Amino acid sequence: MHHRPTDQPCFASFEPAVLRPAELTAFSRGGGARTIPLVTRATGAEVFLTGQTLFDGGAGIALHTHNCPESVTILEGDALVEIDGTEHHVTRFDTTYVPAGMTHRFRNASATEPMRILWTYATVDATRTIVETGVTARVDAEHAKGTPRDND
Prior knowledge:
Elements: E1 26-30, E2 33-37, E3 49-55, E4 64-66, E5 70-76, E6 78-83, E7 86-91, E8 95-98, E9 104-108, E10 115-121, E11 127-130, E12 136-138, H1 141-145, E13 147-149
Antiparallel strand pairs: 1-2, 1-13, 2-3, 3-10, 4-11, 5-8, 5-10, 6-7, 6-9, 11-12
């Protein structure tokens, strides 16, 4: 980890970038969900991660936790989000905040229409632990090992 003098902002070495999701590779997460990494170590991030996940009609992801806080904004469609056992209906521009260690998952509320989220993790070292299996992996590792898929 880099330690900077306190008079320098934590983003001093991050080069400016314009990231266009339509031009980037989407990686399959299985079950009709694809992730497009945006701000990552590969783009110079040292503090946080962002990206988008696209859900086909009826698609969802497994119940999981992270080692850091996560915020998600719905960009397109309607979702059902389960946070700590409570399900919420969220729609375009609604935003969630989930503390580290809290169980959650997102599902597309529509069987036919797509859904898209923008996620932000509070560290570049974010991990995901799948509740059902107990398996923990770095979030950015799935971008390297995932199966590239067309964006839409």
